[in-house]
Amino acid sequence: MTRAASLCLTVPLALLVACSERPTSPPVSSLSAADAPSALKREDRPELATIVWETKASDVVRVRLLNPIVAARAYALVGLAQYAAADAAKKEERRGAVAAASVQVLSYLSAADAASLEAQLTSEGAVGTDDERAAFARGVTVGRAMGDVIVARGRADGFANANGTPKVWDPSTLPVGPTIWFMDAGVAPPPAGFQFPFMRPYFLTSADQFRSVPPPTDLTGPVAEVIALVNNRTPEQAAMAVALNLSTGTITPAGDWDQRAMVLIRKRNMDERAAAHVFALLNSAIIDAVIGCWDTKFEYLVLRPWQVAPADLPNSKLLIGRPNHPSYPSGHSCVSGAAAAVLTRFFPEERNDHVQHMIDNGNSRIYAGIHYRFDVEAGQALGRSAAEWAIHYDRTNGLLAALLPGYRGNDDR
Question: For the chain, how many structural domains are there in total?
Answer without folding.
Answer: 2
